[in-house]
Here is the input.
Amino acid sequence: MAGNEYFGADERKEINDVLETGILFRYNHDAQRNNIWKAREFEAEVAKLVGAKYAHAVSSGSTAVSCALAAAGIGAGDEVIVPPFTYIASVEAVIFAGALPVFAEIDETLCLSAEGIRKAITPKTKAVMLVHMCGQMAQMDEIMEVIKEHNIVLIEDAGQAMAASFKGISTGLYGKTGCYSFDFFKIATAGEGGVFVTNDEAAYKLADSYADHGHDHQGNNRGMENHPIVGFNYRISELHAAVGLAQTRRVPMIREINNKHKKFMMAELGKIAGVSFATIPDADGDSATFLNMFLPNTEAAMKTVDEFNKNGVAGFNYWFTNMYHFINQWNHIKEGKVAARTNVQLLGAPQDYKNLDLPKTQETVGRLISFGIKATWTEQELKDLVAKMTISIKSSMGQTA
Ligand SMILES: Cc1ncc(COP(=O)(O)O)c(C=O)c1O
Here is the structure.
């Protein structure tokens, strides 16, 4: 699944380059740093991997989402359509931008659907925060149609889907701005880190300044730089960037092995009556970090989870009840529990968050079980896992093995 399966000589070499100069800060110190610029190299490597014109590395995927919102001009009072199935950071970033999250339906891609977006649009809608979930991608053709038709801004949180693409364009690059996470669980990790991407030069310049107290990064006297906008500290350190750089170089290899493993799992598990899989709009563009399996309904999924637990099948997520990725677990959002007032409290929530009507999402996530795919599985480990899964699934649905 993740870069954290691989940590070796390449990561150590990049870190040691930084430690030898002692310059852990990504800017300035030109004379002492011996031409070591890991954050810049990391950005160039990510830009090359995904085909972005511009990439800017920051301290986390969460801060990269904030940069994506700010650089796309989303702020106070703007309604932003968000999915109810995502890592909470996508929603938090909207709230802390001063904007107002509006929840819409997902579909079997596990991402917002064009229909869901269309139904959630109001005269105040400024943007859609499209999250590409579980290593896959949304139905981009239909979604781009709605975006263009309503002249709204698309922002992509591809925190879980770096190296995924739809029709040859990487997730994160359909919108005005996009971002990836490099936390410990992603296809490539920096320990902690994130990368903002765009093909829009003006948006890139805004993100570059926003992530560093508004600095314009011109010249080599930081104290005398201009500040075209107000920003904050979302900087990545050279040490984190060094790890992210080595890990990004591994991504094509990880993606290829993940895809092989996922195809094997889908072929074998797909033979079981009642098992299906999340829709992958472009199978060639899957980053394949997760196998996303559907059972016929929520009850069957819950029974399967019980069987997995009984039979020692590990490495899966049942998001519906277990994880911090689903709206059913977000009581603090529903009840407006905040450290200090946000615009949701000041201006009023655009929806009744406690009584959202999202039947399609409830039904879809209810029957979903996702397995983190490991690139380092041996053939035998993979076969053993699939055999155990098969016994558990069949027994949960009363089928004989
Ligand atoms: C879709 C999505 N967005 C944003 C984030 C936040 O990334 P980070 O953990 O690097 O802050 C995550 C992390 O899991 C994520 O899955």
Q: What stands out?
A: The longest strand covers residues 125-131. Residues 60-62, 65, 86-87, 89-90, 131, 157, 159-160, 181, 183, 194 surround pyridoxal-5'-phosphate (CB under 6 Å). The domain at 3-250 is CATH 3.40.640.10 (Aspartate Aminotransferase; domain 2).
